[in-house]
Write the structure tokens for this entry.
Amino acid sequence: MVSRDKLIYFIIDKNRFTGISELLSNDYDVLDNKTISVKVKKYITLPIKNSVDGDQVGPRLEYVKRWVPERWRLAMVGSLHIIQQNDYKLIEACLKAHEVS
């Protein structure tokens, strides 16, 4: 991860996309062998009630195409995934649309 990379927040047990943050620097602290701490700046933050339904966006992502459509959430298991710019733009647009509604 490098400065200006974006982090998309997906709450798997709620099946919701809730926001995006931007990394502020290349520096990070290692907290243990599975956890790092990074400095971020909020970009888009939505409460759960206004967040984006994962089933409306997730199956359309290029990143999840190797999973059968009804099991797309398996692609989101784990902590960190690198996705294509087109997928990012789709999620960003959906989050922005929910910001104003």
In short: The chain has one domain: 6-100. The longest strand covers residues 16-32. The two ends are 32 Å apart (CA to CA).
